[in-house]
Amino acid sequence: MLFPGSYNCKILFPLFFFLLLHYFVDPYMLDLFDQSGEKTWTIEQEAIIAAAPSDADRFSGILNLMMDSEADIKHINNDSLEVSAGNKRKHEALEAEEEIQNTINTIDVLWRANYEKFVQCLKKKTCVTNVRSRFGLDAAIVLEAMIESSDHQNARTMNSVSSSMSSIIESVRGKPGGLSMTLEHVRTILEQLECQVCTEETGALYTVGLKDIIENCQNDEVESLVFKKYGKESYRIFRLLIKMGQLVPMDQISDKTFLEKKEAQKILCKLWKDDYLDMEKVNLNVRGRSEVFLWKVNKKVLWELVLNDMFHTALNISQKIAQVNEEFLLSNADVQKLERLRRARLILESSLLKLDDAIMLFHDF
Question: How many CB atoms lie within 10 A of CB 147?
């Protein structure tokens, strides 16, 4: 009976070796002994014995075959274990990925508006529109190219932009209508925009003041408000004082606006009462007069007043829109009334959008 396990090889190998030895070697060994027990060798037998391989060489193939078989069995077992372990790791990785994906699907993604970038784009659009109205389309293209080539991220701190000539030309050529603009034409536009030139190691930098452009937009907005509220003559006086930016006597105002002194004085007093102008009284002995009145526009105070009025106006328009919407829902039968309310709502919403643009000039820029 064979023993299980590794003992089979230990028992089978000697038995197999004995049978082979008995089968192949015994016929030769019997002839080697004579009746007296002494060995007698013939020439043929000596040649056969010399040519025969040793026992180790004769049975080395069997040993190698048995060892190779055991190695193959171990290799197969190891491969099966590795495959099982690999499948297990792959399964665990897939489970981890599914768990992560489920976590991502269950978590709400939060989005935030880039307010600074949005205001910066609106500020660029406002400046470009103002320059286009004053200097033309080519100047607007150059200014837009300078703003885009700068690296400002905050609209409030973007009071000026600087760029080299090569960057300006490269950005201009990438815009519609910019391919036909020559270098000399771009330099002429930069002079119109009153750009300052600063020479550095890397080359000349051209700087344009966006703050001045925004101030022009603010001036235009307030001048338009004065024109609508007080009339053409008041607009002329206010525009003159805005441009001069200093205290101006009434005689000089009357002469430059071609208005009579009484009419000019009446308009100045009205604007002063509504806090659109500042007035200072100076005691002088000139031409028999002891007092002289000087007038100017205090932008800081006036801008706050205008912004406050805009906020109140926006509130009133919003309330009016809500009232119109409520009436629109309640008037389902009257077709003419519905059409009238719809037109009124469109006008109010359009006015509110324009007012929002004006508020941004004074509040965000």
Answer: 22
Number of Cβ within a 10 Å radius of residue 276: 23
Residues 6+ positions from 302 with CB-CB distance below 8 Å: 222, 275, 276
* Structure tokens belonging to residue 284: 């002088």
Instruction: Tokens for 145, please give them.
Output: 């190219």
Q: What's the CA gap between 188 and 185, in Å, rounded?
A: 5
Reduced to 3 states (helix: H, G, I; strand: E, B; else coil), residue 50 is helix
pLDDT of residue 347: 93
Contact 160, 207 (CB under 8 A): yes
Give the residue among 202, 102, 126, 119 at the shortest CA–CA distance from 153. Answer: 119
Spatial distance between the Cα atoms of 195 and 122, rounded to a whole number of angstroms: 22
CB atoms within 10 A of CB 158: 21
**Token reading at 46:** 């000596």
Residue 148: its pLDDT value, please? Answer: 84
Whole-number Å distance between alpha carbons of 196 and 265 = 41
